[in-house]
Write a structure and sequence with these properties.
Blueprint: H1 25-39, H2 43-50, H3 54-60, H4 71-80, H5 85-105, H6 151-158, H7 161-175, H8 222-229, E1 233-244, E2 249-253, E3 263-271, E4 279-282, E5 289-295, E6 301-307, E7 318-322, E8 328-337, E9 342-350, E10 356-358, E11 371-379, E12 385-386, E13 391-392, E14 396-398, E15 401-409, E16 419-421, E17 425-433
Antiparallel strand pairs: 1-8, 2-7, 3-6, 3-8, 4-7, 5-6, 9-17, 10-16, 11-15, 11-17, 12-16, 13-15, 14-15
Length: about 425
Amino acid sequence: MTSIESDRPGPDGGGLPDPGVLGTVGEFVGALRALKAVESLSLRELQRRTGLPRTTIAHALNDERPSLPPWDRVQALLRAFGIRGDALARWKDAWTRIRLDSARNAGGGGEPEPEAGERPAEPPEGEVRQAGAAATEAAAVPRARFRPGRRALMHGSLMGVGALLGAVAVFGLVGSAGGSPGGSPGGGNPVEAETCPPAAASQSAAPGLPTSADPRLPAAGGAAARRVQARPAWVGRPASDAQILSDTDVDLPVTSPVTGGDALIVSVMLTSTCPGPVTVTDTQGDRFRVAGEVTDTRRHRTLLLAGFRVHALTTADSIRVVHPGASKYHIAVDEFRGVGTVVARAEAHGEAGGTAFTTSHSKVECAAGDLVVAAVGTNSGTAPVYSAEWSALPVLRLSSYRLSGAYRVAPANPSCAATGTTTAQWGAVVAAFR
């Protein structure tokens, strides 16, 4: 990315970036980041000034994004930075020029698609509920189905639509073989139209693998080792979000500090999604592995990912999730103490119209004292209610979709299946940690 010098003369002769000399998406986003640095504004303060969710602001300021943010978001940020009048008009001119250039370079002949802000928003019918200090209002984000840079790909993909439909059908069959009871599809909301590109790698990282070697990981001895040997316990939820958004990467601000040496378990629900890997990283270099996943017959995907002995995180850090295309996402990050590896997992899914969910069709080999974590993604119907031995985690809800998590410490002679009641279409993942 081309860096922006903060002392580049502005239109008023000051030290702000000059939008008239910006020529690429990277330079434009870099200039926005420079303005944020000059004003010394946190994401929390920008949220207050703009009314945008912090995740949306992080998306707009992501220096690796391939396309410009929609103008309505850029305008809100510029006003928060104190840009007004003629200066704001010059930024709009630069945004329009770069957007046209990007469309031409992508093979669009200079006619860019309508920006996301020009489409009707798809507001959530329900509210997103988040835990503790992480709770923020969930604004509906306009959906941009394809970025300008994807136009050439889509023109080429139309020639192979038959093959794509076949691939989607195969993926649906694979998703239905997740240890679920039989039943015909029915109920719930229809799957949103989503064209999946041919997937070079249709699987996530192998479940249950240990974290990659990192010389900065805390040593196995000392305080970190004592935490792993202690009785497992839930500490809190340092990050979460749910959005109607077509982007494939999410930057979640850490809203409460994470203690070094603890584990972070990430629950993800992707609706109407495409095959492909899901990866989680954080700004301290910690890496996460898939602990379990399931995809139902409507291509709604639920996953658990885990990072063990993570570095200490502060509210200056963030957690990044990269995923295949999806119509919506729900992501919850929970901090646990006293675990250092995943030992077993199970998954299942079922259609709407039933009365219960369960992963008991696949036995989970767990032992007394293991931490067992479950995630259930549902569409329509009643909210999942776990059986009494489970402690429910805060629910993320967006429209008719819910991501419901829970945990328990396995007793003697344990049965580690996740069970409960719901009338919704559901996909459930459970994993045991020790």
